[in-house]
Write a structure and sequence with these properties.
single chain, 1514 residues, alpha/beta
Amino acid sequence: IYWFFSWPEQALYAVSESVLRDVQLPAENKVGINETMSFVHLSVTTRFSPDFEAKYKRRNFATPKNYLDFLANYQKFLDDNRKKLETMSTRLGGGLDKLVQAAQQVMEMSKELTAKKIIVDENAEKVQQKKESILEKSVTATARQEEANEAAKKIATDSIEIEAQKASADEALQAALPALEAAERALEDLDKASITEIKAFASPPQAVMIVCLCICILKPLGKEDENAGWAGAKAMLSDVNLLKALKEYKKDEMKAKQVQKIRDLLNREKETFEGDKMKSVSKAGYGLLQWVLAMVKYYDVAKGVEPKRKMVAELQQQKEVAEEKLKRINTQLKELADALEQLTKDEAEQSATLKQLKEDADVMTRRLTAASQLIEGLGSERKRWTEDLEAMGEVKKRLVGDCLLCAGFVSYAGPFNHGFRTEMVYVNWTQQVLSKDIEMTAHFKLQTLLTSDVEIAAWSGNGLPSDELCVQNGILVTKSSRWPLCIDPQMQIVHWIKKKEEKNLTVKTFNDEYIKFLELAVQYGKPFLFENLDEELDPMIDPILEKRYVFVNGQKMITLGDNTVEWNDMFMLMMTTKLSNPKYTPEVMGKASIVNCVITLDGLAAQLLNVVVGFERPDLEEMRQKLVAQMSENRQVIKSLEDTLLRELAASKGSILDNDELIATLNNAKAKSIEIGESLDTAAKTSEEIDKTRALYQKVAKRGSILYFAMSGLVAISEMYEYSLGSYLGVFDTALREAKPDKIVDNRLKNLREKMTQSMYDYTCMGIFEKHKLLFSFQMTTMILDGDGDLNGREFDFYMKGNPSLDKIKDPCPFAWIPESGWKDLQLLKTMDESLKTICEDIKKDGDAWRAWYDSETPESTEMPQGYSSKIDIMKQVLLTRCLRPDRMITATKNLIMAKLGDYYVQPPSLVYDKILEKSNEKMPIVFILSPGADPQSDVAKLGDTLGFTGTKFKFVSLGQGMGSVAQQSIETGYQRGHWVMLQNCHLLASWLKTLEKILEMMHKPHKDFRLWLTTMPTSAFPMGILQRSLKVVTEPPEGLKLNIKQSYAKISDADLDACDSPAFRPLMYVLAFFHAIVQDRRKFGRIGWNVAYDFNESDFKVSARLLNLYLQKSFDMKEVLPWETLRYLIGEAMYGGRVTDNYDRRILNTYLEEYMGDFLFDENVKFYFSRSQFDYDCALEGNLAVYQQAIVQLPLNQSPAVFGLHANAEINYFMASAKDIYAGLMAMQTGTGGDSGGMSREDFIEKTASDIQSKIPKGELKFIKDGIPSPLEVVLLQEIERYEALVKKMVSNLADLKRALKGEIGMTQALDDIGTSLFNGQLPEAWAKLAPQNEKPLGSWMDHFLRRYKQYSDWACGAEPAVFWLSGFHVPESLLSALVQASCRRRGWALDKSTLYTKVTTHTDRSEVKTKLLDGTYAEGLYLEGARWDVESGCLARQRPKQLIQLMPLIEIIPVEANRLKLRDELPTPVYITQLRRNAMGVGLVFEANLHTKEHPSIWVLQGVAMMLNDDS
């Protein structure tokens, strides 16, 4: 079977039909069940897995292996539950039968006891009566004897008379004997066949009929109907007992009337009945006739002797009465004699009997009392068991649907979170089951079949939270058919497993030598846990994962490596990983059952509530924990007792009332059950009271949970921001301890929330970069607002995305000062709330007031026109600022945070190394996450010096090739002896970090003084296990010139300054420190600062300082002029320039040095200033270290861009870039939609956007047909059209597939999901960006760009070569420029390698102003200028206007020229880039170099970062 190939629905149905063919299922549901099986599998593969990946970025593979497990689980669950019900039914039935029997026996025993008591009383009375009777009968014995003698004489006389009369009667009867004997012989000759012969007559002969009627009259059977004629006779003849009845006929009971009727009938055929004539008619009739005649004859004889017989009978009766009387008299005489003889003996025996009877009655009374109590005590059980027994029939029917849902859950739901599991099982699959009329339990719950309250209570007692998600995870871990692999970043499941199986559990990782331990666990049936797994599983355990055992001599055997061991069915394997979102392959997901144990916000809140209450009310928490443990134990005992009752009842033989031991056992069990039941009731009431008190702290716990998820969400920004729940709980506990106490509960709760928020903010800020601190603060604020129900989803979505619509706005922008993108955003913002409904109209009406607000320095803090500051809340004010002044969003966001949480959360704490040490411990590594220009080594060393960790007690190891063993030795020595160890540059030996993780795991009981310090650049290779257990600290170079220069001088001493005798050394050291600060701090301005962010650091400064010392000392000694050129070259080109990869960045670097280093420093007539923007940044020409340090103290904390040579607008660029980073970060941190798209679902919004794009894509294929050899420019057109059509085809295909995937017609692949996410976020999909020109525009603007490209291509292909080219519309604009040069070279005969381009800015602002095309070269439109303004009237560069960040340039002539003829003067060589991202470190992005006229020194424009680009990013 190819596990990873998706099976079609028909195949799934066929497999289900085949596998379930022999399963006992209702015939009417078989088709529906098979259809539901395939439906469940397809719903996971085509709907839930893609949706889960789209929403939570988690991949799940449901393969045919899952489907086969699904079928197997269904069969197993059905079989197990049916057997369970059968067993329970049998046990309940047996128990009930015993109880019913016992009740009946109790009733009988009660009656018997009553009777026995009467007997005892009667016997006592009879003994007395018997004594009196014997005395009386002794007196009368003689009289009774005489009476007996007289009776004997009378009997003798009567006997003689009886004999005489009897002999006479017998003699008379002898005459009838021959006839009777003949009749008997005749009957003997008859058989069943003879009778059948007569019966067969439809109309019998008259004679036969008469004979039969005669017999009917005599009624030998006693039931004949003589009036029924032949029918009655036939009925009589049909009776199989007729012959027997004739033979045994009671002839003495015949009546005269019967005999007379017979004679009358016989006379009708008198002749026939004479002699043997009847034989000729019927042989059988003849036999019956003889019997009838014999009976008649017997009657005649008996009638004569009847008087004699009566006399004999009377005499005989008299004789018998007399004999009886005589016998009775004799008996009485004997009894009287015996009674007198045995009187003494009888008295003794009777007394003993009376005593025994009394004892027996007492025992029976006790048994009756005990049995009655038992029956009465088990009355509730009897009632409940009866109800359960009656319900089991219905439960058994509903198992068909219930087990289907359970099997689906266990087979597929593991990788999903709680929300998806609920949607899958209780909504989607349940609806399918009901739609197929498959019986299932109403309001079905998985826990009903897959676990029990007792088991859940036991899990809870072992540390598993009892919320629904955790219970489901417990079910998946224990009930899955494959071994579970738990995604457990918070390590809840692993702690539960360890506690649940603590007696026998073996815990290992794949880094350990585990195979021998695993073999033992398999052999002896013990649980085994692999923890801290990565994304790959060790192939060594594949046989166990696949349960690849074989039978050898009846034993299950499995091969592990080279060893074969016996397989014990009690063996359990469990695996856990701390990875929060591991990317497991389909192969791994097929082998193991993935269980998503990632904690939910509500689940964590419930756990933190225990922590908070445990701290605030330890008595309450202790009581609650005892109650939980007690209730868990009691529920198990209750279940055990009920099982005992049923088992004992079912196993008892005979009457339970005769089994005293059983009655005692049952009574004890019942008494214990009642006691525990009452205890549970009391516990439940106590629990309610505890819960009421605990509810007071729920807001604190919820805040704690929100803070954790805000912190853990940062991992989406950087893999280095990995936090464990354990480390967070440490911060949480600290906050509880440090929160200000207050006797008023509400005040205390407020203090707890505030302290908790502050502590977590401080802890998190310590481990994240400065650029992410505001992002985190805002994310935390919005999550808190959302938790309190105060966050509007649409507003939050707008904050991140603005207006992502592709539609053109119908209402044109009324003022030039409002950005086009801002006006578009306003069109969406006005639909957000009634208070903003008229915002666009209000701006139009009062444009001057809004312009004044727009022009203000800090609009976010300025009163809004028309009362909007009071009309709308602060969030809406921020959104309005986003539309009109996006550059002020950073400050506006800070204002929002301050309004909602306070000033504390916009002022990140400073890094204090003492506090870092205080928060750490010997088991917690301290990981410094480095940024360019920062190195914590000296600060940590200084801390070590203070605390005595110097020399051998502080080991520094710089990691690199071959240094792993040295580092390991240092750590082992350090943790044993309590030393400090610092491993530097861990990212340079990433392959060894796994070994480091293992070393830390194996480190037991380290010395309390031991500290491990690690430094690393951000890297994805850093082990998550180390990150989770570590204290993370981000080190960055100081922000701002003042702090940066101060840091440089902090490591300089007077001795360093005295090392050089040249008087220029000290001021040049300050110049170097200033330069060092400038080039580092310039990075914050983004691409206008540096094309590439270089990591200038302390080593550059130190080596440059040595060079200064060397060359200045040399010039001083030689009495030469200062070697400025040499110094500028060594510092600008060698040291700092050695890091620079971009020529235009190198130009900036050298310009700074030219501005800072020269004889002008020491000009006595004109004082040198680095800058005079808002402060005089000068340089002291002499003085010791203190003088320079004092000068540094005087510097302002913040600097304007002018200090760097930049325009003030550069700060706006910086702010806007920072805001965009926040938007992007927020979107990355959202696990779902991240907001609300105007009431639309995510899928609907994506589908609408896809349809909008489809409607705008050109329908026909764009072609250019050229006869003959194309020109260089036509070749460019052909190449561009080919690239454009490739993009169009990709877009058409992707959009069609995306819409089909959204409808569920095809599977949602990762590529399609990425496209959908991009459309939802209003961004250009990466798959399209690869086939399109480089662009940073949002999706809506990109579509305009896309369509404009089509127009340029189609106009050119269908017409003449355009006079004006839109360079931005070319995929490879360089190819057009090369073609222009090539065409001119061909026309003029120039050498291609000696030709270049020259640009000239025209006065044309619109292409329509160009009447004729250039003979050589072309006009270009659509270029933007950044860093300066183009003065059209003067035709030169000019300073930017405030807030005008970029400017659309007039048309530019691009003219090919011979390089040797090009003589430029007052021209600035200006780079032209594709986008505002300029050029990256690989050199991608530069198109060509333009020439812009300047009347000012070029250094001004160089430092201002002047450049042109083909596209803006709006």
